[in-house]
Design brief:
Layout lengths: L34 H5 L2 H12 L6 H6 L13 H33 L14 H9 L37
Length: about 170
Amino acid sequence: MQTNIHITEYAPPVLRAASPASSVGTVYGEDQTSIADLELSDAALARKYEDLLELHKPRKEEEEANQCPLLERPEPGSQQEKELHDKVIANLRLQVREVEENDIFEQTLLRGSQVARVQPPSTDDIDKLMRSMMGTNVQSTSKFGHGGGNPTAASLSPGPWLKRDVPPSTP
């Protein structure tokens, strides 16, 4: 008994080599490990690149989070008091800016889509819609519109097929 074998006819895949880097304007250096790195053990190589990338150092946000939140009260009128005042004002302005940005974002999210507020067209008749967009002085000349069937002769200008043979005028 023969089974039905279904073969979907797709276009054959495009198999080609990738474009060389030089054809797209990118030039890469030699992809080889330096001799100094080859001589290092795996642990030493990992440590070298961790130091190079500074992976062991805390980020700026982490350092700021570890600072003591309590402020020492400097002597009134001193340079330290002015510096503290400037630092506090700068931090407050930063916090206010972040709160305003978050508030704008949240309002945008809560407002949601405005599609439901758009008024749908008053009619499905395309001729009426076009006339309403073009103004009130436009007359209906369409035989398909609701303007009364066939156009009248007064509303048509004679085309080249309607012109009668007019003898050329003699100068």
